[in-house]
Design brief:
alpha/beta; binds S-adenosylmethionine; seven-stranded mixed beta sheet; single chain; 22% strand
Length: 224
């Protein structure tokens, strides 16, 4: 790698490298993936498809989708996350948006939730360009993250409300203090910036969902 290429582990969030945090992660972030898994058939993703989940964490999406597709590869920058996934029988690769090279056949869907915000916008663009290169035209990307769909002038109000609604027990979710730290120190960006980046990488947004509080967004995209 070039001298100017960032070390993804250094950007991955220290908590994600901590085996204790990793072991408690599913309780902090429980997810019912059934709706998303059901929606995949509309994208033509099925029993012969290959899916790559980037920033796969503990592998909860991988385990949910695995029975319905041909192969799922879980990619994560954190060795502790990868170790946990391997202990669950998942095909997990240590790497990330900026380092994973898919060399083994066609990828039909790239999935990523709550991981791209670890990279600054320049590197988000490089990352999504690399994702596009993994796919054939028509290939699908599902990207969900903390993405602010609020106008900059209203950001303080929206973020204030988000923090007010946060749980108080850090074992069961992200507390106001943790969310405030996210806003202060992580690289979540505005929807209008991220959507430009998706477009520049060659993706058409087929479905776009902003959360009611204007703090998260989920995109289903097709590569042109
Ligand atoms: C908040 S967790 C989300 C995990 C999972 N996707 C989920 O939705 O439950 C973020 C994950 O992204 C990983 N990560 C951080 N930076 C990354 C990068 N540049 N490439 C790949 N994974 C990364 C972290 O190690 C962590 O497992």
């Amino acid at each position: 790698m070039s001298k100017w290429w960032p070390d993804e582990i250094a950007h991955a969030g220290v908590e994600h490298l901590d085996p204790e945090y990793v072991a408690a992660f599913d309780r902090k972030s429980p997810t019912d993936w059934s709706g998303r898994v059901e929606s995949l058939s509309q994208l033509g993703v099925g029993p012969t498809s290959t899916v790559v989940d980037i920033g796969a964490g503990t592998g909860s999406f991988v385990l949910a989708v695995q029975p319905y597709v041909g192969r799922v590869i879980a990619v994560d920058a954190s060795p502790a996350m990868v170790a946990l996934m391997r202990s669950r029988g998942i095909e997990a690769v240590e790497g990330g948006f900026l380092t994973y090279d898919h060399e083994d056949g066609q990828v039909d869907l790239v999935h990523s939730r709550h991981a791209l915000h670890h990279l600054p916008d320049f590197w988000k663009a490089v990352a999504l360009d690399r994702v596009a290169k993994m796919l054939e035209p028509g290939g699908a990307l599902i990207l969900e993250d903390i993405v602010y769909s609020v106008a900059p002038s209203e950001a303080a109000t929206a973020i204030g409300r988000w923090l007010e609604d946060a749980p108080t027990d850090p074992a069961l979710g992200w507390t106001a203090g943790e969310l405030a730290e996210h806003v202060r120190t992580e690289q979540s960006t505005f929807s209008w910036l991220l959507e430009q980046i998706l477009d520049r990488a060659g993706f058409d947004i087929a479905d776009r969902r902003y959360s009611e509080n204007q703090i998260t967004a989920a995109y289903t995209c097709r590569l042109r």
